[in-house]
Amino acid sequence: MSAKIIDGRQVSAEVKDRVAAEVAEYVAGGGRQPVLATVLVGDDPASHVYVSNKLKACEAVGIGSVHHELPAETSQDDLLTLVRALGEDDGVDGILVQMPPPDHIDPDVVIAAIDPAKDVDGLTATSAGLLAGGRPGLVSCTPAGVIELLDHAGVELEGAEAVIVGRSNLVGRPLISLLLGRNATVTAAHSRTRDLAEVCSRADVLVAAVGVPKLIGADHVKPGATVIDVGINRTDDGLVGDVDFDAVADVAGAITPVPGGVGPMTIAMLMVNTLSAAKARAK
User: Fold this and answer.
1) How big is the CA angle at 229 (ends 94 and 178), to the nearest 5 degrees?
2) Does the annotation mark 33 as catalytic?
3) Helix 263-282 and helix 45-61, axial crossing angle in degrees, nearest 10
4) Catalytic residue among 115, 121, 204, 229
5) Which of 16, 93, 98, 119 is catalytic?
6) pLDDT score at 1
7) Catalytic status, residue 250
8) Does the reported pTM lie above 0.85?
9) Cβ of 152: how many Cβ atoms within 10 Å?
């Protein structure tokens, strides 16, 4: 293996340390402790783990938290009532509704009900519009974490050719805007891209975020490229990414592992967003 491993656990720990210092400074200067409100509907085990990890991160960096756990049969109207009440609560700076909700609840309707000023997941149309327009706002946590990893690895984005495999509203589309904002030349590839390997092999920075286990092989990667694997796929062999790690690591210059790459960054950037939301609201 020749590729340098980009350690998401290490980078996320550094980001959390930075947030903790900034929260302490903010509170010492007279600011109110930032508060994140989390909402979980139902009993999905993975969602419970994700929310628990977010609450632990809040405690670690000095951000307050309030958690609302609702039964799976909660109606969409009742959930929307809670989300709107949190939007009106001056003691709450960030709102995170854990996705996905149960099948009878439309996630798009729930997201639309979140106050954009408290949209620490960066999912509302307002947040997406600000990002697409190159204006300051709350950025979706996973794409923001990808940029943090690239910066930590010393990857020069200006003028670089970047290829993103995946065009979801959660990762692909916001990441396009972030990379354009850093003056990269960006190509969005997807399930209908012709000759995917040829398109990917042009990239100085290749990001896989499509949800297909080991889709990206050695023939997709330009020698020396930086490869960021956003995929987390549960298989009989355990967790694997969208990248065939063993094969690609022999070709790439740097690569993120799964697990331990992009995953830890999502929660770290949630802490960044919650502090940013609190400061913006205080103004």
Assistant:
1) 50
2) no
3) 50
4) 121
5) 98
6) 64
7) no
8) yes
9) 16
- Alpha-carbon dihedral of residues 209, 213, 218, 219, nearest 10 degrees? -80
Is 121 among the catalytic positions?
yes
Three-state secondary structure readout of the chain: CCCEECCHHHHHHHHHHHHHHHHHHHHHCCCCCCEEEEEEECCCHHHHHHHHHHHHHHHHHCCEEEEEEECCCCCHHHHHHHHHHHHHCCCCCEEEECCCCCCCCCHHHHHHCCCHHHCCCCCCHHHHHHHHCCCCCCCCHHHHHHHHHHHHCCCCCCCCEEEEECCCCCCHHHHHHHHHHCCCEEEEECCCCCCHHHHHCCCCEEEECCCCCCCECHHHCCCCCEEEECCCEEECCEEECCECHHHHCCCCCEECCCCCCCHHHHHHHHHHHHHHHHHHHHC
Q: What is the mean pLDDT of each run of 10 residues along the chain (283 residues)?
A: 93 98 98 98 93 97 98 98 98 97 97 98 96 95 98 98 96 97 97 95 98 96 98 89 97 97 97 98 92
Angle 184-270-138 from CA coordinates, rounded to 5°: 55
pLDDT score of 191? 85
Q: How far apart are CA 107 and CA 114, in angstroms?
A: 11
CB 39 within 8 A of CB 82: yes
Measured in whole angstroms, how far is the alpha carbon of residue 105 from the centre of its chain? 22
- Read off the tokens for 169: 């509203």
Closest CA to 131 of 97, 170, 160, 165: 170
**211 conformational bin, left if phi > 0, alpha if psi -120 to 50, beta if neither:** left
Q: Are 269 and 149 in contact (CB under 8 A)?
A: no
The answer to whether 214 and 242 are in contact (CB under 8 A) is yes
The active-site residue, picked from 54, 118, 214, 222, is 54
